[in-house]
Specification:
Helix content is 24%, strand content 27%. By secondary structure, it is of the alpha+beta class. The protein has a four-stranded antiparallel beta sheet. Strands 2-3-4-5 form a four-stranded antiparallel beta sheet, with no helix packed on it. It has a four-stranded antiparallel beta sheet with strand order 6-7-8-9, with no helix packed on it.
């Protein structure tokens, strides 16, 4: 739409008309030089002087009308939904829209508002009030800045017997507080003098925790409620679920009964998106995923046994050690197991066999970290053994991207909440690695030696600038990430979407090729004779034995070479 304004004015109001014509030059005045004035001339050294057409003033004042301003606040709910409607629940919003659209005054209101909206749209098209004039220069400065991270604060366990920081959780409002859970996860290595307390730290005061959470058993995990910043839910080493309300003090508000709780340590608890904001679920190595309502923890509201045979047999269940839940997918969740398998589940299924949808196998050890990409929920990150992997839900045979094997064990990982191509990993050698897969895939973009002890937990703040790492010696370190790794880059989302799509297509082609080769091998084996099959089996056994012996020899050769390299480094340091 084009906005045009026409101005009109009478000819008599424009003044006398100017008439111009060409004519020859005419001498109006001739002033001859005066020789007497030359006697008064004084020679002077060359100098530079600035001149202005305006008059010099020592002071200038302008009186303007006084504008009185008033500060006021407004409480805005997304979309203007009523209090009893949760805008994140799709079914409620659809039902509410249908109800409103049937109202008689709905069409009249839309027609009346149409003119106002049309006028506002015209204004927005005429002037872009959100235009950033120096956007390109800022992007160039950010790209030129080298990746870096600096330590802001270190919070140490105040107890004499140091414990591992097993879980960290940022305060949902402002991120000025950090909750930390401490426990000893080594089997039968816990000291009888070990404290069971967890702490809430103020990030600007590392000397003393702001609050102590008293627990009967050491806490393995804890999580702030995103809807109520005063409440937390945590999982204990003895399998109990503990609910906290910081307004009521250090003691737990509610605790689940031992009979109805997990039989092993609770490794992960996550809040669910619900109307009441009081529902959560937990996972444990006893092979169960339990749903809870923190207002009534006498028994779980729902149960899922991780039996891959889909029979619900608890004796054959795989142990759960990590959980993933995305609010935009309220019916789906994922579980990482001790056996290196990721299980995708559907909560709304009616039977236990339908609740376990599919599995992803790719790690040699427990899946310690599992998280969906916040920008592309179909792609998720896993960490187990010495490698991190990026998966696509559509491909179950293999991951679409992975890192090379690291020299130290990976213990935790998470995506950046502001950049879709960046993720963080921590290792047992005390190093924090920051990966930018758009920049390079073989090596991390930045590696930071946080401490000498092994790192076991990691949590990145929602703004992407702060990362908290927990160590085996009970220290929680907060690092500030540079702006290049914590601010969205130009065209990053589109480039990352293209990369995920390209890698997924490549894996699909390889998967189809492998299936074709398997079918060919199967047809060949069926056509061969029994005696030839026996001879081929013997030859194959010999070949397998030779391969195993060669692999063992290569493994010990690499180990010896690594030992020699470390001894040489120690000698160089001592010298």
């Amino acid at each position: 739409m084009e906005i045009v304004r026409e101005y009109t004015k009478a000819r008599r109001d424009l003044g006398r008309q100017c008439l111009f014509s060409d004519r020859s030059a005419e001498l109006l005045a001739d002033v001859p030089p005066d020789p007497n004035l030359a006697l008064q001339f004084v020679p002077r050294i060359n100098s530079v002087q600035a001149l202005q057409c305006s008059r010099d003033m020592s002071e200038h004042q302008v009186n303007t009308e006084r504008f009185e301003s008033e500060s006021c606040g407004i409480n805005h709910v997304e979309g203007g939904w009523p209090k009893d409607i949760n805008p994140q629940e799709m079914e409620q919003t659809i039902r509410f829209r249908k109800k409103v659209e049937k109202d008689e005054s709905y069409l009249n209101s839309i027609m009346q508002l149409g003119g106002v909206i049309r006028y506002c749209v015209g204004q927005n098209n005429a002037v872009d009030i959100y235009q950033e004039y120096f956007e390109d220069e800022e992007l160039e400065d950010e790209i030129q800045e080298p990746p870096s991270a600096k330590t802001i604060n270190v919070f140490r366990d105040p107890n004499q017997v140091k414990r591992t920081v097993t879980c960290l959780s940022w305060h949902p409002e402002g991120g000025r507080k950090l909750a930390a859970a401490y426990s000893c996860l080594e089997f039968q290595k816990a000291s009888p003098d070990m404290s069971t307390d967890a702490y809430i730290w103020d990030i600007e005061n590392p000397n003393k925790p702001e609050m102590t959470l008293k627990a009967a058993s050491p806490l393995v995990c804890l999580d702030y409620n995103p809807k109520d910043s005063h409440t937390l839910v945590s999982g204990s080493y003895n399998g109990q679920i503990v609910f906290w309300d910081t307004r009521k003090g250090s003691q737990p508000t509610n605790v689940s009964s031992l009979e109805q709780s997990h039989r092993d340590p609770v490794y992960k608890t996550i809040w669910l998106q619900s109307k009441t904001g009081t529902e959560a679920f937990s996972a444990s190595t006893d092979g169960q995923v339990l749903w809870w309502d923190v207002r009534r923890l006498s028994e779980p509201t729902e149960q899922l046994v991780l039996d891959l045979g889909r029979e619900g047999n608890l004796d054959r269940a795989v142990g759960a050690i990590s959980l993933e839940f995305e609010a935009t997918m309220p019916t789906k969740f994922m579980v990482g197991t001790e056996q290196g398998i990721v299980v995708s589940c559907n909560r709304k299924a009616k039977t236990p066999a339908e609740k376990i949808v599919c599995t992803y196998e790719g790690h040699h050890g427990p899946v310690y970290a599992l998280q969906r990409n916040p920008f592309f929920p179909k792609n998720f990150l896993t960490v187990g053994d010495w490698r991190a992997r990026i998966w696509s839900e559509d491909i179950k045979e293999s991951s679409i991207m992975w890192t090379k094997y690291q020299m130290s064990y990976l213990t935790d990982a998470c995506w950046s909440p502001v950049r879709p191509s960046v993720f963080f990993t921590v290792k047992t050698d005390g190093v924090l690695d920051i990966w930018d897969v758009l920049f390079k895939q073989n090596d991390p973009t930045l590696s930071v030696k946080v401490c000498d002890a092994a790192l076991y937990s990691l949590r990145v703040h929602d703004n992407g600038r702060l990362a908290a790492c927990g160590s085996q010696q009970g220290t929680a370190t907060i690092l500030e990430i540079c702006s290049g790794l914590s601010s969205l880059q130009k065209n990053e989302k589109s480039l990352m979407a293209e990369m995920f799509e390209r890698e997924a297509k490549r894996e699909k082609i390889l998967e189809a090729r492998q299936k074709e080769m398997r079918l060919k091998e199967r047809s060949r084996s069926e056509q061969s004779r029994e005696d030839q099959m026996g001879q081929n089996g013997a030859d194959q056994e010999e070949t397998v034995e030779q391969l195993i012996a060669r692999a063992e020899q290569d493994f010990f050769t690499i180990v010896e070479a690594e030992k020699r390299r470390r001894e040489e480094e120690k000698k160089q340091l001592n010298s």
